[in-house]
Design the sequence.
């Protein structure tokens, strides 16, 4: 009963998000959609995915889209013409055929469905960690996870490349001003101590329970952004050496451990059995810093001001 | 003992649902931003408080109970802050709607 209601609401919200004409309403609809999808992942017992969906789809992704909608607001009033019926119909047909292809792949699996789940469960003890998702991400498919972090690095390079020549190397985003005695500054002083503890807890508990570097990093990034938006801190200039070191720390350490696997183990990214857990935890700790910094900088945007101001 | 716990849950959770319902009705029916905020923030804080109160007897131990209470405290903090910010934005934009 609850599942049916949830599915109906999510579908209705998705259609509304597509149909509503103005960008701001569509963004708000999409954020609510992300939170409800997180609820669906919880109902499917995929708590790891739900945490990521809530943090990225509902939280940080929503803030990025809201920022984009705020920037587009000025141009939106001028461009009133809508795309022609043919363009809209072909976009709808393309989207519908992608949805149909996904539906076929999910609803008509070969019987028995190909799965590696039993092997994951039977090898769970190999790394000393009990959370199967962390095992898959950090050990059994470590290559994918490492390349994901390189993609994050490429994303930040892409955002920075939008900077103008004068602003290159400077600070991203506008300087936020807020009333120092106001409620936002109060929250930005009160919440981060608790938020930082929660972020690190989510990383630490990821070894045995749902959690991990990405979810914890998203929490830390939001705390950092709260402090920046309250005007208590400025974004760091992108030319600073420590910032770039933090940005490459996660994928860099991952790569070093992977190469160590060639020298001392059997293959690239093969952990020596005795050190598997400490190695994975140190990679995750470095990745936590990298992910938090990358997500925060992605939201702050391209450098706009010189470092001095 | 477990009957007493169940009675607390059965009494408190519907009370919370009632306040959520009242807040939502206020959101839909009240005429301008400030009165809608008034309906939402007060009713939802109290509603979540009752739901947490109703769930406390069902938790496995002190740890889970403290987690539930801290979730409520964080929602109170975030809700109060966001309500203040929305109210200020509404007053500055001057529309009040």
Sequence:
């Amino acid at each position: 009963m609850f599942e049916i209601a949830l599915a109906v609401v999510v579908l209705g919200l998705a259609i509304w998000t597509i149909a509503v004409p103005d960008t701001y309403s569509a963004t708000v609809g999409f954020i609510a959609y992300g939170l409800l999808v997180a609820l669906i992942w919880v109902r499917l017992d995929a708590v790891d995915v739900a945490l990521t969906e809530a943090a990225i789809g509902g939280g940080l992704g929503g803030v990025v889209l809201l920022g984009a909608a705020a920037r587009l607001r000025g141009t939106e009033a001028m461009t009133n013409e809508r795309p022609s019926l043919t363009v809209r119909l072909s976009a709808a047909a393309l989207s519908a055929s992608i949805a149909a292809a996904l539906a076929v792949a999910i609803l008509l699996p070969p019987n028995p469905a190909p799965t590696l789940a039993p092997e994951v469960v039977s090898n769970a003890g190999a790394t000393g960690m009990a959370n199967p998702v962390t095992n898959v991400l950090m050990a059994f498919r470590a290559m994918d996870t490492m390349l994901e972090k390189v993609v994050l690095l490429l994303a930040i390079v892409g955002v920075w490349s939008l900077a103008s020549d004068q602003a290159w190397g400077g600070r991203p985003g506008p300087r936020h001003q807020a009333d120092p005695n106001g409620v936002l500054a109060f929250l930005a002083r009160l919440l981060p101590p608790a938020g930082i503890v929660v972020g690190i807890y989510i990383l630490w508990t990821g070894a045995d329970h749902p959690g991990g570097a990405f979810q914890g990093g998203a929490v830390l990034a939001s705390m950092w952004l709260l402090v920046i938006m309250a005007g208590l801190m400025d974004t760091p200039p992108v030319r600073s050496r420590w910032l770039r070191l933090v940005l490459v720390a996660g994928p860099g350490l991952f790569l070093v451990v992977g190469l160590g696997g060639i020298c001392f183990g059997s293959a690239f990214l093969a952990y020596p059995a005795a050190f598997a857990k400490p190695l994975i935890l140190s990679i995750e700790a470095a990745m936590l810093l990298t992910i938090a910094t990358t997500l925060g900088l992605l939201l702050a945007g391209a450098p706009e001001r010189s470092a001095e101001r | 003992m477990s009957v007493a716990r169940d009675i607390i849950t059965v009494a408190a959770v519907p009370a919370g649902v009632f306040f959520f319902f009242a807040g939502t009705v206020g959101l839909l029916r009240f005429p301008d931003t400030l009165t809608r905020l008034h309906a939402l923030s007060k009713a939802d804080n109290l509603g979540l408080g009752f739901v947490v109160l109703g769930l406390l007897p069902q938790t496995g131990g002190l740890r889970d109970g403290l987690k539930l209470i801290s979730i409520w405290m964080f929602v109170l903090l975030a809700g109060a802050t966001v309500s203040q910010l929305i109210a200020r934005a509404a007053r500055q934009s001057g529309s009040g709607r």
